[in-house]
Structure formats: structure tokens, C-alpha cells
Design brief:
The chain is mostly helical. Helices cover 38% and strands 8% of the residues. The longest helix is centred in the first third of the chain and has 14 residues. It is globular.
Length: 72
């Protein structure tokens, strides 16, 4: 499946801004999502995504971020 790769901090910032603007960020704080992605990028890991039109029918997908909640 073809994928795109975010190759700079600027691209990651733009990606999060776009997801937030389009309402596809999963809810929650965009700053938290940006922080998680930048931390991942700075650790040397690739950040890739696939256009929804390139996903075959019947394939399972998930959101790229999560809500971290503290339990007291």
C-alpha cells in the first residue's frame, strides 16, 4: 500500500493543523498530539500515513493518536 512520509517538524505541524481544521484529529488537544508526533520523529522513527482512497475495502484502520488519562 503506498504511503506518504512526514519528513520534517514543519510537515508534522502542518499535518496536525490540517487534521484539527478538518475535524479528523480524534478530539482532544492538538498540542498534545503534536508533542507526541514530534517526540516520535525526534527519536528517529518514521511517521507515515496512507490516503483513505488507497485502503482496500475490508481493511481495519485506527486513529493515529490516543487520549492519555491519569487515574487517581
Amino acid at each position: 500500500m503506498p504511503s506518504k512520509e512526514l519528513k520534517s517538524e514543519k510537515e508534522i505541524e502542518d499535518f496536525v493543523r490540517g487534521c484539527t481544521f478538518l475535524g479528523t484529529g480524534g478530539g482532544g488537544s492538538p498540542e498534545e498530539r503534536l508533542s507526541l508526533l514530534l517526540e516520535t520523529f525526534k527519536s528517529g522513527k518514521k511517521i507515515q500515513w496512507v490516503d483513505v482512497s488507497e485502503i482496500d475495502d475490508g481493511v481495519w484502520v485506527t486513529t493515529p493518536c490516543y487520549n492519555k488519562k491519569e487515574i487517581w
